[in-house]
Amino acid sequence: MAGNTFKYALLYGLPLAGLVFVLQWIEYRYLVFSMPGEIYIGLVAVIFITLGIWMGMRLTAAPASSEFEPNEKAIQSLGLTKRECEILGHLAKGASNKEIARTLGVSPNTIKTHVASLFLKLEVSGRGKAVEAARGLSLIP
């Protein structure tokens, strides 16, 4: 932890020391008295904005892969079928039973059976709770 603190102190301290040196080099008093305060403040703000953007880009992690991969272990442990996983995806989009049935080419009663099976396997009592539980288990994006 002390190594990280020293690293960040150097990372911020060196640019700040450089800024102080630059301001002294261009005769700080002359700059303050000859230019309006807004210009001086703007120059310092631009320097710190640039430093902040650069530090933010260096310290933040690269975004993870945008491709979603379902949790196969959870799917197997719950005993979900491929069709039930497919229906979960449609439930997450807010589709009705009739819309899901039309999309999959089956009857609405078949969808009702699959949805009831999902409720039992996920131990929930509604569509919203099923979607919430599925997202919590990384079954759907």
Word description of this protein:
With 141 residues, this protein is mainly alpha-helical. 74% of the residues lie in helices and 0% in strands. The protein has 8 helices and no strands. It has helices at residues 2-25, 28-34, 37-59, 72-78, 82-92, 97-104, 108-122, 127-136.
What is the percent of helical residues? Answer: over 70%
The chain-level mean pLDDT equals 84
Radius of gyration, Cα only, in angstroms?
Answer: 29 Å
Low-confidence segments: none
Please state roughly what percent of the residues sit in beta strands, choosing from under 5%, 5-15%, 15-25%, 25-35%, 35-45% or over 45%. under 5%
The largest sheet is: none
* Structural class assignment: mainly alpha
Let me know the number of strands.
Answer: 0
Helix-strand topology string: HHHHHHHH
Please, how many helices?
A: 8
What would you call the shape? Answer: elongated
Distance between the termini: 36 Å
Question: What are the main properties of this structure?
Answer:
141 residues, 8 helices, 74% helix, 0% strand, elongated
Fold topology:
Blueprint: H1 2-25, H2 28-34, H3 37-59, H4 72-78, H5 82-92, H6 97-104, H7 108-122, H8 127-136
Helix pairs in contact: 5-7, 5-8, 6-7, 7-8
Compact summary:
This protein is 74% helix and 0% strand.
